[in-house]
Amino acid sequence: MNPPFSSHLPGLDRPVVIGEYPYYRAHPDRWAANLRELRGLGVDVVSCYLPWRFHETVTDGQRTFDFTGVTDPQRDVAGLLDAAAAAGLRVLLKPGPFIHAEVQLGGLPDRLCTPDRAPYAGLHGRALTSQAQPLPSLFDPDVRDEVAVWMRAVADRVITPALAPHGPVVAVQLGNEGICGDAHLPITSQDAGPAARAEFAKWLAGRGVGDLAPQAAGDAAQWPPELRTLWSQWAGHAITDVWDWLAGLLPDGVAKVVNVPLAPVAGPEPTVDAWAARTRAIAGSGHHVGHTEWVGNPSADPESFRAHLLGIRLGRTDVLEANWGFTWTDSGFAEARVPVFNALLALMLGSRTVSVYTACATSTWGADIDMDAQGLLAEGVEPALHAPPYCPGAPATENGEPGATAQGLRLLSTFLDRFGGHLLAGELERDAVLVVDRALPEAEAWTPGTDTALRQTAEAVHDVLLRRSLLVDPQWLGDDGTVPGGTGGLPVAVLRPGDGAPADHAVAERLEELLADVPSAAWTSTGGRAAVLRRTDRARRTEFVAAFNSTRSTDRVTGPVGDERCELTVPPGTAVVAVLTDGALTAWLTTPASPGAPEPGLTVGGRPAEDTRILPPH
């Protein structure tokens, strides 16, 4: 498992709060004040994408890069880093080369996204696009030459002068959500252009199956199962090989992180299986692996809750990007309740970070950043969705006014300051373990429309958690075919090929057998609507009991506090967390209530415990 991100911040013994600040969308006169505000809200590390297209300039006919504001004050990254350091913030830089970030062409220069370039194209020939323009393959040597110029300029002129411990930069992110948002694409959408297929052929030869290379050059519809499985494995190596190449362009002394999106567990394509197939190589990459959470709203959608539960537990990753105020598809993200719910869920599942993306709503940017309206329309996106401000529900604003979710971030920061060390040291309480062989998703990623083992696992694990308040923890089978250590004598079941066709895995039935002799949970949901998760710091005798309600009806969760019964009232879309020390209630918090919504609550022996409730500072 990754070392905690806090290892890059000596002296911090709690989960790290990472807040995104898109300086290229904010007036430079506001940078210092905005960064001080983020620090005051509890942000430890400010993260920033660096858009290549924005910093590349032409002087006397020669391309160069402006990182000091010579051509435009908004390009003064050196000044931004100074302001971050002055505010007491550390920095995570994200130079891409592809950053997405709702920037034109994901920050790439126009010349890299033209039809005469070798595109990033899948096995069926469809190019991966941004604003309807083809994205380039990073296996194309010409593209790599250009990327190397950009990355070395960032390394030499931005990272090295500001590298910790003497400067604020503690880490650099490689790529974005894979290379260019590809780590959870369908398996047939992985880059399969000529240069990528040539690398696949080399990889096959390195595994002693070079005789399959001629078939690999042909129509994927005709590939035998063995070759399809190998492509599933290669899809992960294709990403990690690019990461390794990018890392080699950066200073040795800086930590490298990567982010991998969580995958949906429903839909026509077995996307979650393609994601899982890639994780074999990703988990062994040697980089700090985190995840992004753009798979819906788990506070309101049980399917999204399942995607978080399955993805975070299988990946054992920290959150590096979570929605704190974008309302493109769900206005609820502008309510503090929603991002706090999602942050608490990730923390209970094992994340050692909180991500606030973005931490500041901004409104000042120009044509180099703005996405092409016609390109957006060609991809079915309404351009008005991307009009200023960027992230309207963020906790801070460019003009200095408190943002819509500010109280939520203050609440979360207060909680982490008091109990974050216990969370970091704690372990998730589990009742059984379901071990999954990655060979299953490697094969089933090729089977659209089927109820794959992973889809069944996501649904069955969530169902048992709701009905019986028992957690069956999904884990990967070791590459050597052994069950991972640390099961602690818990009941264990293994899902592997040979258990049946995809529709016959019968995961729900397997879990019922697995839990047949498991005692009833101490903390239970009375209505089967709230999911109960528990973490325990045994060394300091501290327990966290959290209830998450993704449904539209209020539920209650009950359990023992000393010799009395404790009851958590959990309205729709709400999370309630109780903190117990030596079995006694120490404190509790809840997500901020929505206007007009039922109030959450906690009682012990029928008595309200408002005197122990954690509230945000005024």
What report would you give on this structure?
The protein is α/β, with parallel strands linked by helices and 618 residues long. It is 30% helix and 20% strand. The protein has 15 helices and 27 strands. Strands 11-10-9-8-5-2-1-12 form an 8-stranded parallel beta sheet. The chain has a 5-stranded antiparallel beta sheet with strand order 15-20-21-24-25. A 5-stranded antiparallel beta sheet has the order 19-22-23-26-27. The radius of gyration is 24 Å and the shape is globular.
Supply the key terms.
five-stranded antiparallel beta sheet, 15 helices, 20% strand, alpha/beta, 618 residues, eight-stranded parallel beta sheet
Distance between the termini: 38 Å
Helix proportion range: 25-40%
Number of strands: 27
**What value does the average pLDDT take?**
95
List the helices and strands and how they pair.
Blueprint: E1 16-20, H1 28-41, E2 45-49, H2 52-55, E3 56-59, E4 62-65, H3 77-86, E5 90-94, E6 129-130, E7 133-134, H4 141-159, E8 169-173, H5 194-206, H6 213-216, H7 225-247, E9 255-261, H8 271-283, E10 288-292, H9 302-315, E11 318-321, H10 337-349, E12 353-356, E13 360-361, H11 373-378, E14 396-397, H12 406-425, E15 427-428, E16 432-436, H13 439-444, H14 453-468, E17 472-476, E18 492-495, H15 507-514, E19 524-525, E20 530-537, E21 542-549, E22 555-561, E23 564-570, E24 575-581, E25 584-590, E26 601-604, E27 607-608
Parallel strand pairs: 1-2, 1-12, 2-5, 5-8, 8-9, 9-10, 10-11, 13-14, 16-17, 16-18
Antiparallel strand pairs: 3-4, 6-7, 15-20, 19-22, 20-21, 21-24, 22-23, 23-26, 24-25, 26-27
Helix pairs in contact: 1-3, 5-7, 7-8, 9-14, 10-12, 14-15
